[in-house]
Design brief:
The chain has about 220 residues and is mainly beta. The chain folds into two domains: about 90 residues, Immunoglobulin-like (Sandwich); about 90 residues, Immunoglobulins (Immunoglobulin-like), CATH 2.60.40.10. About 5% of the residues lie in helices and about 45% in strands. The chain is built from one helix and 19 strands. Strands 2, 5, 6, 8, 9 and 10 form a six-stranded mixed beta sheet that branches. Strands 12, 14, 15, 17, 18 and 19 form a six-stranded mixed beta sheet that branches. Strand 3 and strand 4 form a beta hairpin. The termini are far apart.
Length: about 220
């Protein structure tokens, strides 16, 4: 009986000491560089080339899902790997976004890296601007208005040609937002907007360059508390 009791106590101690698995953390992206042209490692037939992706390890991550989206066709390619690098065959002369999702089989939670933009070089001599990067409010975020019942919208723009001319900022209570709130020049990347509490708002930024090219940030939303 004493032996059985000892085994039971040891089992209980082992269960009590076992730590819950930790969710993975987001990786830091390395290459292709943000808002730049990539350096393909191989050209293939059909105006395509092989692009290499690299990132740093995420804590507690067992595997990674690489997601690369063609910003012209809006098609996404994915690959899952346990390594810190992967390759994909991509269309030449097109802009792309890429991100990496960290995973661990012991937990349901995942972690998503930043999203970076890049161009896979081709025969283009002029480039459309990259979609505006939203800085605040974060997509889907919850924010407080200031003492003037306003919230500041902030973004950043990038263009390989360096010829951004300005932005069209759309903002409304409906989605997609149809109200053109402002058209600031390239040097202005923030705008204060009047808001009400306990309300959802939708906005988007169209980036324009001097060649007439444009890009769309996509529809963003936030709730004012």
């Amino acid at each position: 009986m004493r032996k059985i009791l000892t085994i039971l106590i040891l089992g209980m101690l082992l269960v009590a000491c076992k730590k819950d698995p930790k969710p993975p953390s987001a990786v830091s992206l390395v290459a292709p560089a943000k808002n730049n042209e990539c350096n393909p490692i191989e050209s293939v037939s059909g105006n395509k080339s092989v692009v290499a992706f690299r990132w740093q390890a995420g804590a507690n991550a067992e595997s990674y899902e690489l997601r690369v989206t063609n910003l012209i066709t809006n098609t996404t390619q994915t690959k899952t790997t346990s390594a810190l690098s992967e390759t994909l065959t991509l269309d030449q002369g097109a802009p792309f976004s890429w991100t990496v999702i960290s995973k661990n089989s012991e937990v349901a939670e995942t972690a998503v890296s930043e999203t970076w933009f890049f161009y896979n070089p081709g025969s283009l001599t002029t480039f459309a601007p990259f979609p505006a990067e939203i800085l605040q409010p974060l997509p889907g975020g919850r924010v407080f208005m200031d003492t003037d019942n306003e919230v500041t919208l902030e973004w950043s723009g990038a263009d390989l040609d360096g010829d951004i001319e300005g932005y069209d900022l759309y903002f409304s209570l409906e989605t997609p937002p149809q109200t053109l709130l402002a058209s600031p020049t390239a040097g202005t990347t923030s705008q204060k907007v009047s808001v009400s509490g306990n309300t959802f708002y939708y906005w988007r930024v169209i980036t324009k360059d001097r060649e007439g090219n444009t890009s769309d940030s996509g529809i963003l939303s936030f709730k004012v508390l």
